[in-house]
Amino acid sequence: MRAKLQDLCFGLASAALAAACASDALTPPEAHIDTPGAFVAVEGYDEPGELTLVRILDRLQFEEARLLFMTVHDARPETYDEARELAKDHDLPIRELIRIEPDTVVTQSPHQIVWFRTLTKQEQERVP
C-alpha cells in the first residue's frame, strides 16, 4: 500500500512539474510595463498611429528615472488583439535584439500589455 501511495505521489509531482515547464499553459502573473517577459504593444513607437510590439527583458531603476531593456519585434499589428496573437508565437521575428529606452517611451504613449511569457536563458543573456 505504501509503495502504491509513493508511486501516486511521484506521478502527481511529475505531472505538476511537466505543467510548470510549459510556461504558456500556466496562468501568468499580472505583468506591468517593467515586468521581464511582458509583451507590450506601444502606439506611435515607430510611426504615429502604428503599433509596435516590444518584449521587456529587464529594467534598471535610478532615483528619478527607469530604463527598460527591450527586444523590438519585426511585426506591425493592426490591433491590440492581433498583437496578443503575434506575441504567442515563439518564432516572432526580431528587428532589434536589445534596445534600451527610458520607460517614458512606453508610458507616455498609448500602450497595452498583451501577453506574458517567462524569459528563456537566451533572452535573459541579451541584457548587458
Could you characterize the architecture of this molecule?
Residues 1-22 have low confidence and may be disordered. The protein has one domain. It has a 5-stranded antiparallel beta sheet with strand order 4-3-2-1-5. It is α+β, with helices and mostly antiparallel strands and 128 residues long. It contains 4 helices and 5 strands; from the N terminus they run αβββαβαβα. The protein has helices spanning 2-21, 80-87, 104-107, 121-124, and strands at residues 38-43, 51-61, 66-73, 94-102, 111-116. Strand 1 (38-43) and strand 2 form a beta hairpin.
Task: Tell me the layout of helices and strands.
Blueprint: H1 2-21, E1 38-43, E2 51-61, E3 66-73, H2 80-87, E4 94-102, H3 104-107, E5 111-116, H4 121-124
Antiparallel strand pairs: 1-2, 1-5, 2-3, 3-4
Give a quick summary of the entry.
The chain is an alpha+beta fold and 128 residues long.
Sketch the major β-sheet. Answer: 5 strands, antiparallel
Measured on Cα atoms, how large is the radius of gyration? 18 Å
The structure class reads: alpha+beta
- In which range does the helix fraction lie? 25-40%
Question: Beta-strand level of the residues, as a percent range?
Answer: 25-35%
Low-confidence stretches: 1-22
> Which strand order do you get reading across the main beta sheet?
4-3-2-1-5
- Shape field: globular
User: Oligomeric status of the shown chains?
Assistant: single chain
**Tally of DSSP β-strands:** 5
| Secondary-structure element series | HEEEHEHEH
Average pLDDT rating? 84
Number of helices: 4
Distance between the termini: 54 Å
Structural domains: how many: 1
